[in-house]
Predict the structure.
Amino acid sequence: MEKVIKCRDVGFDCDGVIRAKTEEEALKLAAAHAKAAHGLEDVTPEVVKKIKSVMTEE
Ligand SMILES: [Zn+2]
């Protein structure tokens, strides 16, 4: 099983999909992607909560 975050589900108009072995890694990759691809400066607790809420396992 992998943690999967679809960027679109977080609220961005983006087909990016983040996959990682652990939730911690997935959150880290999602934060890096949001910064690099979407110019998100601060990954706030609200953003983390949103990311966690859309995270699935495949
Ligand atoms: Zn994205």
About this structure: The radius of gyration is 10 Å. Residues 3-57 form one domain. The helical segments are 7-10, 23-38, 45-54.
